[in-house]
Amino acid sequence: MSYGNQGDGGYGAQPPGGGYGQQPPSGGGYGQQPPSGGGYGQQPPSGGGYGQQPPSGGGYGGGYGQQPPSGGGYGQQPPGGYGGGYGGGPGGNPPDNHLVPAILTTLFCCLPLGVVSIVKSSQVNQKWQIGDFAGAQQASEEAKTWWKRSLIIGAVGYGLLIIAYVLFFVIFAASMSSYSSY
């Protein structure tokens, strides 16, 4: 068997009666349009069709692929962005995740509330990457709320601790002065 021989029916030979790319002579092949004038690839005589733009009107004054005159459209971001001016949605910056204050309040203030704040702050970037912009904004606000709660409870706790130490030393000093007077 010879692979390069075209005349003996090798791989390059065309079958008798028409090749693969030819249309049958009957006029009704796959790539030909019927003679009625309405096929799939032809435009209707009304002037419409998929490939043509409507002549006028149609809402925004133009065709399907044109942008509205206001400068909006699908590819443009609305003014102010998503989430009230935090940098917007796709293509913008994600909202602040408040990770640094969350870690600091976890270490120095209130551990349980600080851990919740760290969890919420880690959800901000995850939700932003999957496209949940409202969820990312909400997680940012919750992270801020939890680290502020941790800070307040920690400050109150440290304040009470300082008051307790002062009272302890005042009572201890008073009791020592009463023993020394005898």
From TrEMBL:
<dbReference type="InterPro" id="IPR051423">
    <property type="entry name" value="CD225/Dispanin"/>
</dbReference>
<feature type="transmembrane region" description="Helical">
    <location>
        <begin position="151"/>
        <end position="174"/>
    </location>
</feature>
<protein>
    <recommendedName>
        <fullName>CD225/dispanin family protein</fullName>
    </recommendedName>
</protein>
<feature type="compositionally biased region" description="Gly residues">
    <location>
        <begin position="1"/>
        <end position="91"/>
    </location>
</feature>
<keyword id="KW-0812">Transmembrane</keyword>
<feature type="region of interest" description="Disordered">
    <location>
        <begin position="1"/>
        <end position="93"/>
    </location>
</feature>
<keyword id="KW-1133">Transmembrane helix</keyword>
<keyword id="KW-0472">Membrane</keyword>
<dbReference type="Pfam" id="PF04505">
    <property type="entry name" value="CD225"/>
</dbReference>
<dbReference type="InterPro" id="IPR007593">
    <property type="entry name" value="CD225/Dispanin_fam"/>
</dbReference>
<feature type="transmembrane region" description="Helical">
    <location>
        <begin position="99"/>
        <end position="119"/>
    </location>
</feature>
